Amino acid sequence: MSVQHDPVQRADFDQVMVPNYAPAAFIPVRGAGSRVWDQSGRELIDFAGGIAVNVLGHCHPALVGALTEQANTLWHVSNVFTNEPALRLAKKLLDATFAERVFFCNSGAEANEAAFKLARRVAFDKFGEDKCEIIAATNSFHGRTLFTVSVGGQPKYSDGFGPKIQGISHVPYNDIEALKAAVSDKTCAVVLEPIQGEGGVLPADLAYLQAARELCDKHNALLVFDEVQSGMGRSGSLFAYMHYGVTPDILSSAKSLGGGFPIGAMLTTSELAKHLAVGTHGTTYGGNPLACAVAEAVIDVINTPEVLAGVQAKHQRFAAKLTQIGEQYGVFSQVRGLGLLIGAVLSDAWKGKAKAILDAAAVEGVMVLQASPDVVRFAPSLVVEDADIDEGLARLEKAVAKLVQG
């Protein structure tokens, strides 16, 4: 039986919400696969994926089944108790990765918060309080808590909230010499996204990640990979570190991990994990049965040769068409990224206009993202159908053509 709801509209947002977002003029109300429908019944193709979250599209039967079954079984018991879905998910993540221990939480920011706290705790326990410096990349993004926003290398997000957390410095991404100059025996961690997401869909150079690994080993620092956006099949490997063959000490995951249900995870080794002894860190909802049941279904579907190979094939389909649009209309200078995290870099004439393209695309019935004002970002479902890719990119081309015509 369906519940009768009070009618709401987009104008209500401006009356009831804190004004930290500026959402689109339409409200999506229903999704299926890679398509969504708004309040007026208009259909859109979804290449935004809830910002790299809806890894299996909308209402995937495996996820709906897992959530429904768990919803009728057990929702929450807190970490005073463990639960079966959390243990099953943990085993699957550990079996599939370098890790030997996992900490569950609710978001990417929380996964990174745990990662950074662990890195500082390990250094504190082993080397004392002077070894606390964290080195991250400029234009990086690691979350919105005070700690994670300070590690993220974008002052526009961290300025204006009073004193910042000390001991954090930033170096240009993909610059090996700058990293060498920055890392010292006071460094407790080097924190990197294998693919910078918010910063413009910029993949790391292999040599850069290898150098980071060597520098951390040399200086007893920990290498932390933020795979909140790049992980869970997005790159065509289960995690992007596998694509590069460079193994971190700590890895954070969220976004696609839950396929739309909030969950985050920090993965690490037993040797490091022991520094988070009972009472040192925690979360009320982390590892709750609902989230873990859904995430287990996500990994069961994604971590298969068919789906991961399909990501590479779909990348080629996107890249070929986006390159053609870029050349034909003079809008994109480059198409970059790995797997189904793709950035179309705007040409000089179109610099700063990513939002205009995003808005024009929505009018034509396709949802895309931006990653900085200079890059149009695509983070669709990993199982998006080829027909949806073709139709969505045809709609994008129509939007671009109209913009070019003025």
Automatic annotation (TrEMBL):
Chief localization: cytoplasm
Binding site for N(2)-acetyl-L-ornithine: 144, 283
N6-(pyridoxal phosphate)lysine found at: 255
GO cellular component, one term: cytoplasm
GO molecular function per UniProt: identical protein binding; N2-acetyl-L-ornithine:2-oxoglutarate 5-aminotransferase activity; pyridoxal phosphate binding
The protein's enzyme class: transferase
Similarity annotation: Belongs to the class-III pyridoxal-phosphate-dependent aminotransferase family. ArgD subfamily.
Assembly and interaction partners: Homodimer.
Other information: May also have succinyldiaminopimelate aminotransferase activity, thus carrying out the corresponding step in lysine biosynthesis.
Protein name per its UniProtKB record: Acetylornithine aminotransferase
Source species of the chain: Pseudomonas xionganensis
Annotated gene: astC
